[in-house]
Amino acid sequence: MTAAPKHHLELLTACVIYGTVGIFMTLLEDMSVGSIIFYRVLFGLSAILCYLAITGNLSQLALKRKKRYLLLLGILYVSQMFSYYTAIRYLGASSAVLLLYTDPIYLTFLAPVLLGEKNTEKTILALFLGLIGVFYVTRPEGGFEQLAFGSSYLKGVIFGLVGGLFSSGVIISVRYLRDEYNGLTQLVWQSVISLVFLSPFAISVPGQVLAENLYILMLFGILITGVGAVFYIRGVAGVSAITGSILTLLEPVSCIFFDYTVLGSPVHSGMLTGCFFILAAAVVVSLDNSIFLRKLIFGEKTFSSKKISFWKKKNS
User: Fold this and answer.
1) Contact, 239 vs 15, CB < 8 A?
2) Could you tell me where the beta strands, DSSP code E, fall in the chain?
3) From residue 300, how far is each of 23, 227, 245, 294 by CA, in Å?
4) 244: Cβ–Cβ under 8 A, 6 or more apart, which residues?
5) Is 290 a residue whose pLDDT tops 60?
6) For the whole model, what pTM was predicted?
7) Residue 246 Cα distances to 65, 77, 157, 239, 309, angstroms
8) DSSP string covering 193-250
9) According to the model, what pLDDT value does residue 145 have?
């Protein structure tokens, strides 16, 4: 297999793996969201460390500059996961993953302030498309009047949107740290930091409950954090920024697929409409500039030599 198809396959495989998160969350019983994340990260981190040891790359974990921002990345990462997994508990995986993909909306406001990146035609368009998508995804089938204050649905929507906000923070932090630490190194350290913050949840789990869920937790961690992350990082390293961004859209699609086919969760028309607009926003924001969009539409020859850096879709 040539290099390009190999990297495409690795990236697509990672996104399909990430799409199984709803299945695991359903299989795990009598455990809080915090404890699930702790053991998922623990087993996943163990798998990654074994991978680095076997490949002789443990030396890349050495701390360099910007240690405080690694700490910030870890805090944002654990906050994103906690919000996302809580949203899954309230809404189901399909709606939760789409709300997680609202990060382009937040990046439109945060990137100019924190990274000095200017908003362009594409970011404004992505913001507009994303807001339309959020409207449809968060709208219950019976209308917004069903969003009673304190209802589980409303809580799920709030946690999902907050997860998207933290996800944008993760992306900004990764962009800031990418010249100092590669993607796998960032993943390891943000996982270590997450374990520190989540340790109180771990010790609160009764031994019998942990024993009953241990096999699923190990599979969850190794598959999502271990295998999925390695495939993701290897995949994005060999494709262009635009190709990588578009291929990662398979994650929410596969999540909805597994949610519907395996778990039997309903998929209403509003969710599908919202899915279209949110994913369209993600495609637009991945484009280099409006000139590329015009060239893409009118068929002029273009190319991109950029590589997409490791960020959230990673850590679902």
Assistant:
1) no
2) none
3) 43, 38, 21, 8
4) 11, 235, 236, 286, 307, 308
5) no
6) 0.78
7) 32, 23, 25, 11, 14
8) HHHHHHHHHHHTS-HHHHHHHHHHHHHHIIIIIIIIHHHHHHHHTTSBHHHHHHHTTH
9) 52
- 167: tokens are 């996800």
Measured between alpha carbons, how far is residue 19 from residues 24, 25, 186, 258 in Å?
A: 10, 12, 22, 7
User: How big is the chain by its Cα radius of gyration, in Å?
Assistant: 19
CA distance 177 to 172: 9
Token pair listed for 96: 């939760």
84 contacts 100 by C-beta, under 8 angstroms: yes
3-class secondary structure, 307: strand
Q: How many CA atoms lie within 13 A of 298 on its CB side?
A: 7
- Judged by phi (left if over 0) then psi (alpha if -120 to 50, else beta), residue 170 lies in alpha
Q: Which residue in this structure is represented by tokens 């950029």?
A: 306
Q: How confident is the model over 81-108, as pLDDT tens digits?
A: 999 999 999 888 878 887 887 776 777 7
Tens digits of residue pLDDT in 189-233: 999 999 999 999 988 889 999 999 999 999 999 998 888 888 887
